Amino acid sequence: MTHEEMLEEAARRERENEEWERKERSDTVLRRYNHFYNEECSGMPHGTPITPEHMQAMALECMIDALICENMNVEYNAIAIDDIKDLIARLYEQSNEFLKRVQEFKDSADGVA
Q1: 67 φ, ψ to 5°?
Q2: Taking the domains of the chain in order of start, what are their residue ranges?
Q3: CA 65 to CA 73: how far, in whole Å?
């Protein structure tokens, strides 16, 4: 293996490691967000008077809490826009997967599938 080939291989491995770390971080933030959201919103007693604005505010607080936890060892007073965009994308992905499962269940109950 030549020196250039070794450098290319090292660069490829570093890219793979960065992608893996980014995916791990994304999974961790989503898991923490879901935990905080479930604790704050889903755990509310049935019939609690709450507006959509309350739910949105709680969701944003959960997002911030999840991102602060991920950056616990860093002096921290700002959230990277990329972190927020990634969390939003993951939430859309999670929602779409849920809707797909619901539709599949509905179709199987209706005898379509």
Answers
A1: -70, -35
A2: 3-110
A3: 14
